[in-house]
């Protein structure tokens, strides 16, 4: 006579084996992506089942905490495991994902002449958009000064090729910023508004269109992983690892789940909403040669646009 299937197995089965909707809602990825992540952790990261927990259950516990910032007391009730077991396997999976950064990290490649994307084709050699976002963290009282933003929050700032940056950066080698004092926000170019009248306006329009992708990325990252939206009681070392792991998992999902239904829940985000919210980077000196190169790039692209 076969023994009764444990309740823990029933719960995991309902979570990851029946409907994508349940898996998406609880773990922020569909069943296929979840299976692929378990496979990578097991066969590339060396993760093994324990006497009582399978690899999928360990990963599900970990994702459940990241997705909704659930406390261990809640997760132990969901998975019918002890608080000690939840704590142990959360940290086990966290450290394994960090060790797999070479597998999960997607390194940028420069824009080529063959690029046809209307947002990026104007920026040959560009590696992407560079910006920062603040993640609230909890630190010991004596260390809060190191992490306090100009708005008084305790947070950390996540930061021949170059990146598109906002005016919080200096226009220096490797950092291509928009022209100051020239209309820039996407709302300034709504239907009915006169188009770019010179190379500076054209450059700022294309710069804003391309850089808007990073604002959406930050929005999606925080929407995906609830643990990034509020203070955490983990040590600052663990909190920093959690931020890195959420970014690595974002990379992973871009490959394994390109048609992510969760993106439909993300409201439209414009550069204008966040451009002036960040800290200014003061330790990068302006570069006249780089500024002249920006003028040359802007003029050539503007003339190319006008000729069509």
TrEMBL record:
Annotated ranges, domain DUF8040: 13-98
Keywords: Hydrolase, Metal-binding, Nuclease, Nucleus
GO molecular function, one term: nuclease activity
Cellular-component GO terms for this entry: nucleus
Coarse class of the protein's main subcellular location: nucleus
Alphabetized InterPro entries for the sequence: DUF8040, HARBI1-like, HARBI1_dom
Pfam families the UniProt entry points to: DDE_Tnp_4, DUF8040
Compartments (UniProt record): Nucleus
Residue intervals of the DDE Tnp4 domain: 161-251
Cofactor: a divalent metal cation
Family: Belongs to the HARBI1 family.
Protein name: Uncharacterized protein LOC105180029
Organism of this sequence: Sesamum indicum
């Amino acid at each position: 006579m076969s023994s009764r299937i444990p309740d823990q197995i029933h719960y995991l089965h309902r979570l990851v084996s029946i409907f994508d909707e349940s898996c998406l809602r609880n773990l922020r990825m569909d069943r296929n992506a979840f299976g692929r992540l378990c496979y990578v952790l097991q066969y590339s990261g060396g993760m093994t089942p324990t006497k009582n927990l399978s690899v999928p259950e360990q990963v599900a516990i970990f994702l459940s905490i990241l997705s909704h910032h659930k406390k261990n007391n809640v997760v132990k009730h969901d998975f019918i495991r002890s608080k000690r077991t939840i704590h142990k396997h959360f940290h086990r999976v966290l450290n394994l994902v960090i060790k797999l950064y070479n597998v999960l990290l997607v390194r940028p490649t420069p824009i080529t002449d063959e690029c046809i994307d209307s947002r990026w084709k104007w920026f040959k050699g560009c590696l992407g958009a560079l910006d920062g976002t603040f993640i609230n963290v909890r630190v010991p009282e004596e260390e809060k000064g190191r992490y306090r933003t100009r708005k008084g929050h305790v947070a950390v700032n996540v930061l021949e090729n170059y990146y598109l940056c906002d005016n919080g950066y200096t226009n220096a080698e490797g950092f291509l910023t928009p022209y100051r004092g020239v209309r820039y926000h996407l709302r300034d170019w709504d239907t009915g508004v006169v188009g770019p009248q010179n190379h500076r306006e054209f450059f700022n329009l294309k710069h804003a269109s391309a850089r808007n992708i990073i604002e959406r990325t930050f929005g999606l990252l925080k929407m995906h992983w609830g643990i990034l939206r509020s203070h955490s009681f983990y040590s600052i070392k663990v909190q920093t690892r959690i931020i890195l792991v959420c970014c690595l998992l974002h990379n992973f999902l871009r490959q394994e789940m390109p048609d992510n239904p969760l993106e439909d829940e993300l409201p439209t985000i414009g550069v204008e909403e966040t451009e002036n919210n960040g800290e200014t980077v003061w330790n990068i000196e302006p570069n006249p040669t780089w500024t002249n190169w920006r003028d040359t790039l802007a003029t050539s692209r503007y003339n190319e646009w006008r000729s069509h």
